[in-house]
C-alpha cells in the first residue's frame, strides 16, 4: 500500500511538471482575437546565459507562430493585429542536496552504534519561458503562460528544436482559455 501511494504521488508530481502556469483576464472575450503579431521589442537576448541566443529566439518565435496558426490565428503586421505576442526567459541556478545516513551495529561484545552521513550537492540550471498576449487596442496584458524546466547542455540543434516545440505547445495548451458562460 505504501508503494502504491508513493507511485501515485510521483505520477501526480510528474503531471504537475508538465502543466503550464497560466493566468488571464476573465473579462476578455478571446474569441474576438483572430490575428497576431510579434511585439517589436520581443526578445530573449541579454539574459547572460549561453543557451539563450538569437538561435533560441528564432526557435521560440517559429514554434509560437506555428502553434498559433494551427489554432486558427493569422500572423499579420503589428499595426493590423488583434493581439501582440511578447516573450521572455530567465535562467536560474538551483542546487540539489541529498543526504544519506547509513548505520552499522555493534558486533561481538562491542556496544554502540556507528553512523555515516554523506551529503552530495549538484548545481543545475532551470529555465523559465514566459509568453504574453497583449490586446492591441487597450495595450493591456490579457493572457500569460509560463513553463519552467531543467536546461540540458550539449544538445543537438534538433533536440533543442524538439524541446522548445514541446515547451511552447505545453504553454499554449491554455490559450485561448476556455471561458465558462
TrEMBL record:
The UniProt record lists the keyword Signal: yes
Cleaved signal peptide residues: 1-17
Residue intervals of the DUF4136 domain: 22-177
Keyword Signal attached: yes
Pfam families with a match to the protein in the record: DUF4136 (PF13590)
Alphabetic keyword roster: Signal
Name of the protein this chain belongs to: DUF4136 domain-containing protein
Amino acid at each position: 500500500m505504501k508503494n502504491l501511494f508513493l507511485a501515485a504521488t510521483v505520477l501526480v508530481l510528474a503531471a504537475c511538471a508538465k502543466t503550464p502556469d497560466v493566468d488571464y483576464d476573465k473579462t476578455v472575450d478571446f474569441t474576438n482575437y483572430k490575428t497576431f503579431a510579434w511585439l517589436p521589442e520581443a526578445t530573449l537576448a541579454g539574459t547572460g546565459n549561453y543557451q539563450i541566443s538569437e538561435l533560441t529566439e528564432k526557435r521560440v518565435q517559429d514554434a509560437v507562430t506555428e502553434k498559433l496558426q494551427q489554432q486558427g490565428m493569422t500572423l499579420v503586421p503589428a499595426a493590423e493585429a488583434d493581439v501582440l505576442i511578447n516573450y521572455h526567459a530567465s535562467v536560474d541556478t538551483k542546487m540539489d542536496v541529498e543526504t544519506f545516513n547509513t548505520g552499522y551495529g555493534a558486533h561481538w561484545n562491542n556496544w554502540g552504534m556507528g553512523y555515516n552521513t554523506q551529503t552530495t550537492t549538484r548545481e543545475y540550471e532551470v529555465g523559465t519561458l514566459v509568453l504574453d498576449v497583449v490586446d492591441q487596442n487597450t495595450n493591456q496584458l490579457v493572457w500569460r503562460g509560463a513553463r519552467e524546466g531543467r536546461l540540458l547542455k550539449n544538445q543537438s540543434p534538433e533536440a533543442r528544436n524538439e524541446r522548445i516545440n514541446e515547451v511552447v505547445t505545453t504553454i499554449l495548451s491554455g490559450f485561448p482559455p476556455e471561458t465558462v458562460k
